[in-house]
Structures are given as structure tokens and as C-alpha cells.
Design goal:
The protein is mostly helical and 256 residues long. It has helices at residues 38-63, 88-93, 104-117, 122-125, 137-159, 163-169, 183-190, 194-197, 216-225, 239-255. The longest helix is centred in the N-terminal third of the chain and has 26 residues, at 38-63.
Length: 256
């Protein structure tokens, strides 16, 4: 500074004015137990949880065979599809009167859309810094309500489903290409046997007839008198046609 030139002041933008620090985050020590650094603290925990889950999933896939079913048959109108377990609550929701039939759009789109869309509002409904559930009643209440609804609907779907019938309808069965020009096949076709036993006798609502291990006389007796869910009197042919039917089924067993 020279005499007569006055005094000059130099400002530094790094020095806060009146103690305000709008662009400088506070130190983590000011929030004990409430927050942490994303890297490496939070990210390391995520990686550890992911690694444990992945290891458990790989062990499960190695220990348990996948529950495969038979090849899809679009002509089988008796097959009742069943979703995977994580969609059972939506499957159950569509069974109720107010969400099925003419109100199907309500159960398929409106209610799930509102439920999952409300998750987008969660950050705006509760913006407090607290992480303890009992200090966040609104967020905790919505979460518990959602978990309870999903659990109840999933349990209802599983409890009222006929798992034995589902196992039978999805069972992988041996399919043998049969001679559809055989007289015995024609007899079965004429008497409506294929509607229950399938075009290749693989079984639909009725059991499969490939490898029945029954004698010709037993087959004829079942055709006339019925067996299990099969009522008597369905066969309307002659004795010769009945013999052709029995011989045909036995021939498929021999070729199996």
C-alpha cells in the first residue's frame, strides 16, 4: 500500500459469510447412528448382503431340481395356470367379485397401479431425518399395511389351491405317437374316449393309457363298467369293437 492510493480489500469466496455453508455438507459426526458414507461403508454392506443371497440361491439351484411341467398344450382347456409364488397375491385378488368379471380392469390395473404407484410418493410423504420406525408412523404404517395385504392374499391363494390336481395336470407324461388309422383308435374316437385321454392317449382329464399294465380283459371291463371318475355306460360299440379297443391299448403298451 502506498500513501495516497487508498486501501484495497480482496474477497475470498471460500470464506463463508455469517457462518452459512450452503454447498458444504455437514460432517457425519454430527449425525451419530443416523447416516454414513456411501463409499465404502454403505456400499460394502450392500455387497455383503448381495453375496450372501447369491451364494444361497446358487446352493438352492444345485440342490433342488427345477419344477418343470409338460409342454404347453393350447388345446387343453382343462389346464388351470398357476403363477409363481411372488405373484400369488395378484392371482388371489382377481378371484374376488369386485375385481373379476366386468370389474377385471379394477383388479388387474387400477388397484395394483394405485398400490405400486403410491411407492413413488413415499419420499414426499415422510421427509424426516429419523430412521427409527416408531418415529416415522406414516411410512411405517403404509409399509406394514402393504406387507399384511400381500401376505394375506398369498396365504389365501396357497390355502385354497388344489395342489394335487395342479401336480397331475402339469405332470410330464410320456407321449407315444399312435397309429391313428388303427381300427382300435377309430373305436376310441367314435366313443369320445380321446376327449379325456388325449389324441395320443397321453391323458388330459382322464389318465394316460400308455403303459397301463392292465390285461385286455381289464381294459374291456373298465370301458364298459367305468373306473374311478369314469362313469359306466360310455362305451356304445359292439363286442368286436371292444376287443379292437383293448388290443389297441395293449399294443401301445408293448411298443412303449
Amino acid at each position: 500500500m502506498h500513501r495516497g492510493k487508498g486501501m484495497k480489500f480482496v474477497g475470498d469466496s471460500r470464506i463463508p459469510i455469517n457462518g452459512r455453508k450452503p454447498n458444504i455438507p455437514k460432517d457425519y459426526s454430527e449425525y451419530p447412528g443416523k447416516t454414513e458414507a456411501f463409499y465404502p461403508d454403505f456400499l460394502l454392506k450392500e455387497w455383503m448382503v448381495g453375496a450372501v443371497f447369491l451364494a444361497g440361491f446358487l446352493c438352492l439351484t444345485a440342490a433342488e431340481a427345477p419344477p418343470l411341467e409338460r409342454i404347453a398344450d393350447p388345446t387343453d382347456t382343462t389346464y388351470i395356470p398357476m403363477p409363481d409364488w411372488y405373484f400369488l397375491f395378484l392371482y388371489q385378488l382377481l378371484k374376488y367379485t369386485f375385481t373379476s368379471g366386468p370389474y377385471n380392469i379394477l383388479g388387474a390395473m387400477v388397484i395394483p397401479g394405485l398400490a405400486f404407484g403410491s411407492l413413488l410418493l413415499a419420499p414426499f410423504l415422510d421427509r424426516g431425518p429419523e430412521r427409527r420406525p416408531f418415529k416415522r408412523p406414516l411410512a411405517t404404517g403404509f409399509m406394514l399395511l402393504g406387507i399384511a395385504a400381500v401376505f394375506y392374499l398369498t396365504w389365501q391363494a396357497a390355502a385354497h389351491h388344489d395342489w394335487e390336481a395342479a401336480k397331475r395336470q402339469g405332470e410330464i407324461k410320456e407321449v407315444v405317437e399312435v397309429d391313428k388309422e388303427d381300427p382300435g383308435y377309430k373305436v376310441m374316437e367314435a366313443n369320445g374316449c380321446l376327449g379325456c385321454h388325449g389324441g395320443n392317449l397321453e391323458g388330459l382329464t382322464g389318465p394316460q393309457l400308455v403303459g397301463t399294465e392292465k390285461t385286455a380283459d381289464e381294459i374291456k371291463d373298465i370301458a364298459v363298467n367305468g373306473f374311478g371318475d369314469m362313469p359306466p355306460g360310455l362305451f356304445k360299440g359292439t363286442d368286436e369293437e371292444l376287443q379292437q379297443l383293448a388290443d389297441f391299448i395293449k399294443s401301445i403298451e408293448a411298443d412303449k
